[in-house]
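Revision sheet: structure tokens.
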Amino acid sequence: MSSQPRPHLSAEEYLAFERAAAGKHEYHDGELFAMAGASRAHAQIVTNLVASLAGQLRGRPCSVYSSDLRVKVSSTGLYTYPDVVIACGEHRFEDEHDDTLLNPVVIIEVLSPSTEGYDRGKKFAHYRTFDSLAEYLLVAQDEPRIEQYVRQPDGNWLLHEAGDLTGRLALAAVGCTLELADVYDKLQPGG
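Predicted:
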């Protein structure tokens, strides 16, 4: 059995391919990584997050986007699709297509068994290089639990956690609050 080398794509080739592709792919260091579909719980949590945040941001200079908006970490070359992203003020995009955001303020990832280690480790390391990023949230899908990392003035990240349906987290960077009961709506018994 022969092993054929995978083609090494430039960022421009990736963007041309991605804009025509039926599915979504992350890109880093010349390689494509296909993104798998999400579970019902994952999809419901993303929907609940976007609905809650969009309502709170209405009429304000921040916008919330679901995983269909690509984000580029310019300093590392990672192109990815966070589950939820918030940008404020003037949104900066890579080019005239306005489909690759460069300046997120808040990124939220819903944890999946296959990506949890990456979301906590290497992906967060990429995200920490954004000058614009103020908050990073990791949302469990198998239990009501959200971990919130908040950038401090000295560049360190402070962890806050909420771990039951009565919990809430303030997203100070965008003036919003996440109620865990809302985030996990329709996922609990009787929901």
